[in-house]
Amino acid sequence: MKKVLFFIHNGWVFGKIHNELIKALHPDIYCDIACWNNQYTHKDFELFLKKYDYIMSIPYGCFLIHERYGVPLERTIAVLHQDCDVYNPVREGKKDWFDKLGGYAAIAPLLQNVSLSHGVGRVPSLLKIGTFQNQYPKNISSELKNIGSFAKSQRIDQGYDVKRGHLIDVIAEKTNLQLVKSESVNFLAVEQMYNEIGLVIFASLVEGNPYPMLEAFSCGIPVLGTPTGIAPEYLKNGGGKLLPLDEEGFIYKAVYEIEKMKADSSYYRTLCNESYEIGKSIDWAIIRNEWINYINNL
Question: Is 251 left (phi over 0), alpha (psi -120 to 50) or beta?
Answer without folding.
Answer: alpha
